[in-house]
Specification:
By secondary structure, the chain is an alpha/beta fold. The protein has nine helices and 15 strands. It is globular.
């Protein structure tokens, strides 16, 4: 290939169905951003699974042809911005990239400078994408609970613990000295959760059914990646003055609860947004990730794949058939 050519996973819409193929593209095909990045690694998130397969509660890719991938890390190749120069190592998560803007599932990306964050010292592009939006979101959740001032003698619940956000949340909470309980529908993964730092594991079914507005107090804090009845049940069992960080909606967008956890137990529900999070919070989160996980994620949490593997793995992530993090080597 010439210096202007690169490979990417291109999505097309054919008769209402989405096709995904690895194709050779030209630099001139990229959108009109002010920084061109030579992408070294990307990853696979739930949104990516929805974009590539076209399956889900909403259409992720906003137009076609389209390159998915909501995360990327690499080296600046060309810049019209004073904020970055060729050779700078950068990471990008969110901002609608991979949804409204061509994303990271390609060897090159052209984006807006304000979407990029300098890669922290000591972090590689691979380790950044092993974390990706999932690790970044987990850090935002943990940081929010940490600032709330939880009772560390009580348990902290992480729902959807087999997923990327859940897995990293368990690790971060353990690093900070919390007693972590992992919740998952995959009982066979108990050893995996304990290896990450979970003190105990409970079945997803204990939380996913409708519950009473208030339950016996158990959770000092909760990181919920599931939503719907699971979030409602977690709120009902949160202790007085506890806090719940809500980051996901795998089970649904509804929240079938009452005001009782909030007005009887003074529970705080914290919404976590990782897409349009301000730059100052991004810098803090990436720096804390470097400090709390200086060696990055352990091998049992990360699997490396290539562009051609994406369609199959995108379908698997929607079916809950993956665990931890999928890193895409470009």
């Amino acid at each position: 290939m010439t210096s202007d050519e690169f490979q990417g996973l291109l999505l097309r819409e054919v008769d209402g169905a989405i096709t995904a193929t690895v194709e050779t593209l030209q630099t001139s095909d990229l959108p009109d951003g002010d920084v061109t990045v030579r992408v070294e690694y990307s990853d696979v998130n739930y949104k990516d699974g929805m974009a590539i397969t076209g399956v889900g509660h909403r259409r992720i890719a906003q137009f076609f042809p389209f390159i998915p991938g909501i995360d990327l890390a690499g080296v600046v190749e060309d810049s019209r911005s004073t904020r970055f120069a060729p050779g700078d190592r950068v990471v990008l998560t969110g901002w609608g990239v991979g949804e409204k803007w061509w994303g990271g599932h390609a060897q090159k990306a052209r984006v807006k400078a304000e979407w990029l964050v300098p890669l922290p010292d000591g972090m590689t592009t691979r380790s950044a994408m092993a974390l990706g939006t999932a690790g970044f979101s987990a850090m935002l959740c943990v940081d929010a609970l940490d600032r709330h001032g939880l009772d560390r003698s009580r348990e902290v619940l992480v729902t959807g613990a087999a997923g990327g956000v859940g897995s990293v949340s368990v690790m971060l909470l353990k690093q900070l000295g919390y007693r972590v309980v992992a919740s998952s529908g995959r009982a066979e993964e108990e050893g995996y959760f304990r290896s990450l730092g979970a003190e105990s594991v409970i079945a997803r079914s204990h939380l996913s059914e409708p519950s009473q507005p208030l339950l016996p107090e158990r959770w000092a804090g909760v990181i919920d990646t599931v939503g719907s009845h699971t979030l409602a049940t977690a709120l009902a069992a949160t202790v007085y003055d506890g806090a719940v960080a809500a980051i996901g909606l795998v089970a649904g967008r509804d929240l079938p609860t009452t005001v009782l956890p909030f007005i009887i137990r003074s529970v705080t529900l914290i919404g976590i947004d990782s897409v349009y999070c301000p730059t100052n919070r991004r810098l803090r989160a990436w720096q804390r990730l470097t400090e709390l996980l200086p060696e990055g994620l352990p091998n049992q949490v990360v699997e490396e794949i290539g562009l051609s593997d994406l369609p199959e793995r995108a379908a698997a992530i929607l079916k809950g058939k993956t665990r931890g993090r999928l890193v895409v080597k470009l």
